[in-house]
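Long-time lurker. I teach an intro course on protein structure, and each term I like to show students one example going from raw sequence to a predicted 3D structure in token notation. This year I'd like something fresh instead of my usual example. Would anyone be willing to generate the tokens for the chain below so I can use it in lecture? Attribution to the forum is fine with me.
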Amino acid sequence: MSSDGPTRESLVAALVAATGVSGYEQFRGQVADLVLQATSPRGKGEERHARGRAWEDQPIVRIPGVLGPVAGQGYLIGQSIKKMEESLGLPPERARAELLGAAVYALAAAEEVERRQRG
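-- Reply from a regular --
Happy to contribute to a lecture. Here you go:
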């Protein structure tokens, strides 16, 4: 890792080490890019949403808690769908960024289900 934080390559290497499974390099690269987009101080997530707040204090987590279990999960799924639709017709780099953002919302929805399961 560099002093600026993790790189795509270091995250991919960590995923390989953690799973012990070879292959899936392209998929792991996409996962690494997802993590970097959501957590990088230079990423859209930090700029628009985090502003120095921890994940659990960001709107993507707090809004579903206010809406309740079903509406909260639906909100996150809807945001994911909206981002996927927005990716259509954009230049490739921007479309990919929107699709990574959609994946962040989908993962937040999975986290919401897990949070409900824990009670």
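Some talking points for your students: The chain has a mean pLDDT of 89. The CA atoms of residues 12 and 28 lie 6 Å apart.
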